[in-house]
Amino acid sequence: MSKIVMNSNAFMTRKDVVCFGVLAVLLLAVFPTVLDPFRLNLFGKYITYGFVALGLVLCWGDTGILSLGQGVFFGLGGYCMAMYLKLEASTVEATKIQSTPGIPDFMDWNQLTELPYIWKPFHHLGFAIVAIPLVPVVLALVIGFAMFKRRVGGTYFAIITQALASILTILIIGQQGYTGGVNGITDLRTLDGWDIRTDGAKLILYFGSAILLLASMVLAQFIRRSKLGRILVAMRDKEDRVRFSGYDVASFKIFVFCFAAALAGIGGAMFTLQVGFMSPSLVGIVPSIEMVIYCAVGGRTSIFGAIYGTLLVNYARTTFSEDLPQVWLFAMGALFIAVVMVFPDGLAGIYRRYVDPHVERLLGVTRKPAGQITTSDTASAVVE
Amino acid sequence: MSQTVTDFLLAVEGLTVSFDGFKAVDDLSLYIDPNEIRVIIGPNGAGKTTVLDLICGRTKASAGSIKFRGTELTTMKEHQIVRAGVGRKFQNPSIYEDLTVLENLEISFPRGRSVFGALGFRRDAEVRDRIEEVAAMIFLSDFLNMQAEYLSHGQKQWLEIGMLLIQDPALLMLDEPVAGMSVSERKKTAELLHRIIQHRSVLVIEHDMGFVADIAHKVTVLHQGRVISEGSMAAVQADPRVVEVYLGH
């Protein structure tokens, strides 16, 4: 007869530790050694998209909620950071040539004579740090309540999130005096007095992003390996059964949507810090869909796959854009079609099928029953 | 002394639901005592499954009331009805095919049902003991680690029954529990049902008359959304209206 073991130590198997180790070495040792400062900064930017892809693994891959508006949350986090940085850059001293010194330059150009109320709290770094995950979460909470409590899902939900991305872009561009309009918020200089434009600062920000991403992945892993994680997968496949097991399905969907929004917000803030500006072109429909593609290429049911997918697609994008800019969009489209038609589980699916068996033999891990390959991420904590 | 509504475990009164003018259930009343085993029979399209859907909140009633231990169910959400003590087995086995038998039972264990409760849920001794107990009862002790997808049809039915059982509901509703089973599976299931229906009320939809005669305390016959006969198996079988619409065919 089978024996059931406690799952207290099941949240990381030996294999997970190895996977985390490989990624950590790659991000924290290999990239900083082999890449020049300019390339490393680009990879730092790619990492910030990794936060969004990670959120999509839980939200889309596990729970089946496809959001085509993650750019909104990325943007909200990014703008919260940009607002703080902009205020710090707009000292009376630095803006004395303006007709109203002490306010951001674009406000002065738009004939604003006073700092708007929503900007005022962003004088404080503490407020900005809290707002970065919280503002996206509050918006996700409102949308989640409105949609999931009414059982709106699937395609309808995807369309609504896409509309949201469109609305936010229009709002930002239209309210030029408050948001910087189509140019975004630019000319960001210091974070609490620390110059973020130097190579040294960029190196530190790269490491900060990488470590934060790894920490977020550990948290995501913890959620996925808990009963909550299994309920998310169960909801994707048999929503009614979960409901009739006594769970309020909507609240679980709201939770995972908010979690993905918070991660996207953090990614957006790290983006602003490393790239030095935030603009509406980074938060609209197109970037939102690209974020879904990163996740799909990597494998939407694997947190590692999603991160590798993000890095790879972005690297390819940069390379193509430099050499054959006109080809890139076609290549991206072809890639997405290929993922959908040929390898629906993305890179992670290919890895699981062809590479994983060899790795397991190497590690001396016993093979699970064949049927569990597709759900190896939610592997049971059971031994014979 | 006559019974009042509050003496019943479940009191359904004047229940009506119409889909685009078609009344699938029409002014139906039904009373179930504690520890009673009630079987609903009737021809296809009589509204049997719809009655279960209405009780468990899957379909909203157009009119009427459903009182469970004196609480009105028609205004409650599905998960609240489950937590109040009503368990429902679907006609086709409804289990989580990607998860193992163990995980299927664990998700059904009535603890950690809130978001953060689920996050902090631990498989402690109480959970393990209960899962092992239920698994033994549904003949799946040796299959705990198997992915549910690979179980036979009968085993899937048992697993779903086990998922209900682990919640220990006061009212258990089963929709054709022996349908599609082999003879030996059917025999084992009947045995299983006999054991699990002790100390609780059960509402069963079933076509297998041998099985019905075996378990039913009382039989309710539905036809076109209405109750046409109710009573003991013998009384129902002797009712000329029942013979005409159902048993005679």
Explain what this protein looks like in three dimensions.
The complex is a heterodimer of chains A (384) and B (249). Chain A has 384 residues and is mainly alpha-helical. Chain A has one domain. Chain A is built from 15 helices and four strands. In chain A, helix 5 runs antiparallel to helix 11. The longest helix of chain A has 27 residues. The C terminus of chain A is likely disordered. In chain B, strand 1 and strand 2 form a beta hairpin. In chain B, helix 3 runs parallel beside helix 6 and helix 6 packs parallel to helix 7. Chain B has ten helices and ten strands. The mean pLDDT of chain B is 89. Chain B has a domain of 134 residues: 3-Layer(aba) Sandwich (Rossmann fold), CATH 3.40.50.300. By secondary structure, chain B is of the alpha/beta class. Chain B is globular. The chains are: A mainly alpha (384), B alpha/beta (249).
Number of helices of chain A: 15
CATH superfamily of the domain at 1-85 and 201-249 in chain B: P-loop containing nucleotide triphosphate hydrolases
- Report how far the terminal alpha carbons of chain B are from each other: 40 Å
Mean pLDDT of chain B: 89
